[in-house]
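re: ur question from earlier - yeah i can do the single chain one, its not a big deal. heres the input i used so u can compare w yours
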Amino acid sequence: MCVGDVPGDGSMLDTDPLDDSDMMVDMSTTAPFCDSAGDPTLVGCWEFEQTANDASGDGNNATATNVTYATGKVGQAVVLQANSLLVVGDRASLEPVHLSVEAWVKPAMTPPASPGRWGIVDSDGAYGIFVTNTNILCTFNGSLTVNTVLAVGVWTHIACTTDGATVRMYIDGIPAPTTAAGAPLNTGNNQGVVLAGNSPNGDTFVGTVDQFRMFDEARSQAQICEATGLSTCK
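and the output i got, formated as tokens:
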């Protein structure tokens, strides 16, 4: 099954198999997207406005290699090829016990059979989110796989959370129909975190990524929904 896009007229297409209702979309927010003062749980925020710097206030800037920038979901976004790399150095704030990761992604193609997957985020030995040509996988000290294919050339919001006991996935703000048992996250190794790829390198997401955030808590369904701009969040 494929995940639908948000059309330009502001309405939600009825093509998302995880959604059973018509919803209106409003990408405006009442607070800055990277609001370090108002939300101390925000530990990483990359809007990719011609830079890979972190605007959360935690200083988790990424080193970008072979990337460009183009029109994104909001403002600008980072465009990655197979040889691109976004690496954040080893940071204590990105080694939490509980975690939420969310981002808008738009693949330029379907992940090939080899290497078989692309990374959305990866901290070796701690956590990761990966997409293949058949599913999306969250490995947050507990693995959750959802059989959903990302539509090529379409923006999709992906989020995964863990509260130390349960791993959850959300696609376009809608919770996946299954969860997985988890545990508090490991601290991983000292190679840092790769955004839109696999640590230490490779398996790069080929396409465009925007509005990437990490929190040191498990965000609620309503908070994840609001991040997508849906106006009917509960």
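The chain has a mean pLDDT of 86. not sure if urs matches, ping me
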